[in-house]
Design a protein that fits this description.
about 190 residues, two-stranded antiparallel ribbon, 8 helices
Length: about 190
C-alpha cells in the first residue's frame, strides 16, 4: 500500500512509443497537407487581379485557380463557416468535433479504414463523412447560417477564381501540366 495516492509518472514504453509515432505521423501528414497551400501573398496579390476578356477565359481561370489554390480556398471556406457559427455555440462545438473526426478518419489515416473486419475505400469514407457532417450540422438548428456561409464561401472563391489572372502563377512539377492545359489557347 505504499503506492496509494501516488500519480504514475510514466506509462509502458510500448504504449508511449506507439502514441508518439502516431503523433509524429499526424504532424507529418498535416505538414504535407498544408504544404500544398500556396502563399497567402500570392493569393492576395492585387496586381494579379483583372477581369477576364471572355467566358472561355473566365472558365479557364476558374479551373486553373481552383486547382492551384484549392487548399487556400478550403481554408477560406472553413473560416467563413466557422465565423458564421460563432453565434451558435452548440453548432460550433459540433463543427469542431466533426473536424476532429475528419482529421482522424480521413486526413491522418495511413492505412485503409477497417470496421468490423470490412475495409472501406477513401471514396466511401469521403461520402459517408460528408453526408454525416451535413446531417449533424443541420440537425443542430443552424441550417440557415450554415447554408448562407457555404453560399458566401462559394461566391467569394468563385469571384477570386475568375478575377485572379493565371499567367503569373509559379508552376511547380505537380501543377505545370495543369497550368498549361487550363490556360486559354492563344489566338
Amino acid at each position: 500500500m505504499s503506492s496509494y495516492g501516488t500519480i504514475p509518472t510514466s506509462s509502458s514504453p510500448a504504449a508511449t512509443s506507439v502514441s508518439l509515432e502516431y503523433i509524429s505521423r499526424a504532424k507529418d501528414r498535416i505538414k504535407e497537407g498544408l504544404g500544398a497551400r500556396r502563399p497567402w501573398a500570392e493569393l492576395a496579390d492585387v496586381h494579379s487581379l483583372d477581369l477576364p476578356r471572355s467566358l472561355r477565359e473566365s472558365l479557364a481561370r476558374v479551373r486553373t485557380n481552383l486547382a492551384y489554390f484549392s487548399v487556400n480556398y478550403a481554408i477560406v471556406a472553413l473560416a467563413i463557416v466557422f465565423l458564421s457559427l460563432l453565434w451558435h455555440p452548440i453548432s460550433l462545438i459540433v463543427f469542431l468535433a466533426m473536424l476532429a473526426v475528419w482529421l482522424f478518419l480521413y486526413f491522418l489515416r495511413d492505412e485503409p479504414l477497417v470496421v468490423f473486419g470490412r475495409m472501406f475505400s477513401d471514396k466511401v469514407v469521403l461520402i459517408v463523412l460528408g453526408v454525416l457532417t451535413i446531417f449533424v450540422l443541420l440537425f443542430t438548428g443552424a441550417t440557415t447560417e450554415i447554408l448562407s456561409a457555404l453560399l458566401v464561401a462559394a461566391v467569394v472563391v468563385l469571384i477570386h477564381a475568375v478575377v485572379r489572372r493565371t499567367d503569373n502563377l509559379s508552376p511547380d512539377e505537380e501543377s505545370a501540366g495543369l497550368l498549361r492545359s487550363a490556360s486559354p489557347p492563344s489566338s
